[in-house]
Hints:
Blueprint (H helix, E strand, L loop, with lengths): L4 H8 L15 H12 L3 H13 L3 H10 L5 H13 L3 H14 L3 H13 L5 H11 L7 H12 L4 H13 L3 H12 L4 H12 L4 H16 L3 H13 L7 H13 L3 H13 L7 H13 L3 H13 L7 H13 L10 H10 L1
Helix pairs in contact: 1-6, 2-3, 3-4, 4-5, 5-6, 6-7, 7-8, 8-9, 8-10, 9-10, 10-11, 10-20, 11-12, 12-13, 13-14, 14-15, 15-16, 16-17, 17-18, 18-19
Amino acid sequence: MNKILPVILLLFLFCNHNMAADTEQPGAEAYAKAMVLLEKEDLAGALPLLTEAAKAGHPDAMVQMVYVLPDLDKKTKVDLLHKAAEKGNAFAQFNLGNFYFLDKKEPVKAAEFYRLAMLAGHPNAGLMYGLCCLQGIGTKKDLAAAQKAFEVDIAKGNADAMNYCAVMLCRQGKFEEGIALLEKAADLNHAAALNNLGILARNGDTPAEREKAFFYFNRAANLGYVPGKRNLIMAYITGCGTGVNYKTARRFANSLAADKVPAAMFILGMMDLYGYGKDADAASAFQWYLKSASQGYVPAMLQVAEMLRTGNGVKADPAAADQWLQKAKVMAPPEEDPEDLTEKGKENAAK
Length: 351
C-alpha cells in the first residue's frame, strides 16, 4: 500500500477551473476573463490575461499558468507555485508537495506543503499528508497523525483516504473500524477497497465468507483492477467461494499476461508446474516464470533461481541461479505487502 506514485501523478493533473476569485484581489478582473476563455478552450486569448493577472499577484492565475503551459520550464513553474503558495493557495501548496515528493531530494518540503494544503482545504492533501505520516516520508512515522490526516479527506468523501486508513487500521488489529471504512469506500465503487474486503473475507472460517471474498474480487476485477483480477484467478484455482475452474483461471491469466502483467505470468507458471488443468510441464512453467522475473517480479525471480538450481524444467545452472537470487535481494520490496493486512492485524490484535 506504499505505492503512492500513481496517486501522485493522477492528482498532479487535477485542476479546479472554478476556483473562486476575490473581486477585490489584484488581477481578479483579468483572471475572471481568462477563465471564461479557458472554458471555451481559447488558450491564445486567455494567456495574456493570465499573465497580466499573475504579474499583479493573483495566486490562482499563477497556478493556472502552470497547468495550461506544459512547456514552461521547471524553475518558472516552481517559482510561480511558491509565490501562490505564500499567498495561501491550497492548489499551489499541494502541487509543490507533489513536486518535492517526485523530486525525492527534499521529502521534508513535500510533507510540509501537503500539510499546509490540507489545512488550506485541498480535497486530496489529507490523503497525501497521511501517507507521508504513515510511511515516514519527510516526517516521522506517526500512525495517529496519519489517521487524523486521512480523516480530513474521509470527511469529504475521499474513497482513497478511506481505503488507506482502513488498511492501516486492519494492520493494527482494528478490524471493525477498518472494515466499516472499506465498506464505505466499496459503496463508492473503489476497486482497491473491494479487493481488500475480498482479502479479509478470503481467510474466513465459513463458506459464506469465502463466497463474499469471490464476490468482492469479481467486482474489483470488473472495474479493471489488476490485483482484483489476480485474486479472482486464484479464487478459481483454489475454489475460494466458487467451484474450482482451471479453464477459466487460465483464460483470465492468459488475458492478463498478454497485457504484460508479471503476476499473471507467475500464475501461468505455477499452473504449468503443478499441472492445474493439464499435464504438468516444467519447461513451460520455467518460461513463464522467466518472463515474469524479467519484469522484476520477485516471487518469479526466486522460482527461476530454484529451478535453475535443481535443473527442473531447464538445464541446471548454479551460477545463474545465484545471479537471480542476488537480483531478488536487491529489488526493493514493498514496505507493506497489500495481501498481508489480515495476518499483520491478527499479530497486532494478539498483543
